[in-house]
From TrEMBL:
Species per Swiss-Prot/TrEMBL record: Neobacillus mesonae
Domain ABC transmembrane type-1: 81-261
Protein name: ABC transporter permease
Family statement drawn from the similarity comment of this UniProt entry: Belongs to the binding-protein-dependent transport system permease family.
Source species, domain of life: Bacteria
Single Gene Ontology BP annotation: transmembrane transport
Record bears the keyword Mitochondrion: no
Primary site of residence: membrane
Length: 278
């Protein structure tokens, strides 16, 4: 290797090291700011509770922690959370797969899109919460109903983003590739899918909280297990601390699930984009 190549390689390593260091410092800075916001919010909440606002309406951080501790010791927390996790993950996987496949097929099949798009969009306009009573009649009050409700909610979000991503692939580029002799299979997997991948990831990331919403709505509507049931039961007992505790548990689970999708899946399938942003 020549001396110029060695110098260039060393400069690249230094630049990469600086980017990593800058990114690490930014992460630490953001973490400190976020921690300060959380601590400040808890302090204000604790100060207002019982002094300015009656604890019946907003509870208090200590009551919330006591509820979480009681559920943890009794095993209720892990039992109900495992049910909600199962419903959310299965609903997310089934809905994302179905939405991605249908969106990709209709994106590639122009004539079929003209036929089915109005029907799909009309179903998308329906509030998914309104489907819960109908799903109870069809599938009962078991775990299947919650999974299906979550899957239906996820399906439309992933479908719309996948369909838009496939339809927005540069038409001139596709024609040029066809002229060069590329087969439809090569065009699909080498051009269309990579181009639409960013849109698909946006759909997946957007649908994460909606998968949780679908599962929890089903639990609140008709269930005797799951975190949604804890919310409904605590509210029915006028237990504000328990209600807030269940909501915080859902928030933490949603953050963890979002981190898995954006942190692991996106880095694997959109590695080129991650590298450019570093």
């Amino acid at each position: 290797m020549s001396s110029e190549a060695i110098i260039i390689e060393q400069s690249k390593k230094k630049a990469l090291s600086k980017r990593k260091m800058r990114k690490r410092k930014e992460f630490i800075k953001l973490s400190i700011i976020r921690l300060f916001i959380i601590v400040f919010t808890l302090f204000i909440w604790h100060f207002l509770s019982g002094r300015v606002i009656d604890k019946f309406w907003i509870s208090s951080p200590t009551d919330v922690m006591q509820a979480i501790y009681k559920w943890t010791v009794s095993g209720e927390l892990f039992y109900h959370l495992s049910i909600t996790v199962q419903e959310t993950l299965l609903g997310f996987v089934f809905g994302a797969l179905a939405g991605g496949i249908v969106g990709f097929l209709l994106g590639r099949w122009t004539y079929g899109a003209k036929i089915f798009e109005p029907f799909i969009m009309s179903l998308y306009s329906l509030p998914k919460i309104a489907l819960a009573p109908l799903f109870i009649l069809w599938f009962g009050i078991g775990i299947d109903m919650k999974i299906i409700l979550a899957a239906v909610t996820v399906f439309f979000l992933v479908f719309i983003n996948t369909y838009a991503g496939v339809r927005n692939v540069d038409k001139d580029m596709l024609e040029n590739i066809r002229i060069m002799g590329a087969s439809e299979r090569q065009i699909t997997f080498k051009v269309v899918l990579p181009s639409a991948l960013t849109w698909i990831m946006v759909g997946l990331r957007t649908s994460i909280p909606y998968a949780l919403i679908g599962a929890v709505v089903g639990e609140i509507t008709a269930s005797n297990r799951g975190v949604g049931y804890l919310i409904q039961y605590s509210a029915g007992q006028y237990d504000t601390g328990g209600t807030f505790a269940a909501l915080i548990i859902l928030m933490l689970f949603s953050i963890a699930l979002n981190f898995i999708v954006t942190g692991l899946i996106e880095k694997r399938f959109l590695r080129w984009k991650t590298d450019q942003s570093n």
